[in-house]
Design brief:
Structural class: alpha/beta
Strand order of the largest sheet: 1-2-3-4-5-6-9-12
Distance between the termini: 13 Å
Shape: globular
Strand content: 15-25%
Radius of gyration: 17 Å
Helix content: 25-40%
Length: 277
């Protein structure tokens, strides 16, 4: 379940190689206290359950519905805090980039460059991310099918990078909802790349007239269980000690105190699936 190119980043962790890997953290870097609290809690849970863990937080939110929404503390501050988390807990780290000229700078601080779903077709962005020789995780656009992600994979490979992961995060359903088509997990795995299920963003309810994206976090467990059952290599879960006060995506993040129980269930489910083949 763990891609070979990811294992060097996980060498300081003890984990069950048959388990899924987890990408988790708050949506955005709000403060040093927040990222340290979340990383500490998630790291402790994952160590207990044998789940390999990658810390995630956005250093900047470039895609916000409203111009009044929080976008970050500043790129250097945000990236430095993510890097500090990685060094403190010996964790690989990831964050999203939004333009080709961000790739090389972000790569100085983080281990995995994440390409946002809306930007998965941006050729210069994919090429710049590939050129860093970091792992590139491309989120499937809400407007694309799984097989169409072959073109994103091809762009990265042609730029000289074979370290690619793909993330399913739902498909646009009308104007203000998303649905998950689990066929996409199978289809993207047929592209011979590890596939991750984004269990929180896939429950967004975008384009609300309030200017703030809604969500349905009560279904995170359902999304995650189905993803494990259909063969996802990894899960992506945004979590926060108090989602109601989060500065971004609070409507679809998992409360941090609920994470341990959820991961216990998912780890057991994964072990069961491995046993039955």
């Amino acid at each position: 379940m763990i891609p070979n190119f990811l294992t060097p980043l996980l060498q300081k962790q003890q984990y069950n190689q048959q388990q899924f890997f987890l990408i988790a953290g708050p949506c955005v870097v709000e403060s040093e206290d927040l990222v340290m609290e979340v990383a500490d809690k998630v790291y402790t849970i994952c160590k207990k359950l044998g789940i390999p863990y990658i810390f995630k937080a956005s250093y900047r939110k470039a895609n916000r519905t409203s111009a009044n929404s929080f976008t970050g503390l500043g790129d250097e501050v945000g990236l430095s805090l993510i890097q500090k988390v990685g060094k403190t807990f010996s964790l690989p780290t990831t964050s999203d980039i939004h333009a080709h000229d961000e790739a090389a700078e972000a790569a100085k601080y983080i281990d995995i460059l994440q390409i946002p779903a809306f930007l998965c077709r941006q050729t210069d962005l994919l090429q710049a991310a590939a050129a860093t020789q970091k792992i590139v995780n491309v989120k499937k656009g809400q407007f694309l099918s799984g097989p169409a992600m072959q073109f994103a994979v091809d762009k990265i490979k042609k730029a000289g990078n074979e370290q690619i992961m793909l993330t399913e995060r739902g498909t646009t359903f009308g104007y203000q909802d998303l649905v998950v088509d689990y066929r996409n997990i199978t289809w993207m795995k047929q592209l011979n790349q590890p596939v991750i299920m984004d269990c929180t963003h896939s429950l967004q309810q975008p384009n609300q007239t309030s200017g703030i994206t809604g969500g349905n976090p009560a279904l995170i467990e359902t999304i995650a269980k189905a993803a494990i059952a259909t063969g996802a290599n990894g899960l992506f879960i945004e979590t926060h000690p108090n989602p109601a006060k989060a500065l971004s995506d609070g409507a679809n993040m998992l409360p941090l105190h609920l994470l341990e129980n959820l991961l216990e269930k998912l780890a057991t489910l994964r072990e069961t699936i491995v046993k039955i083949g």
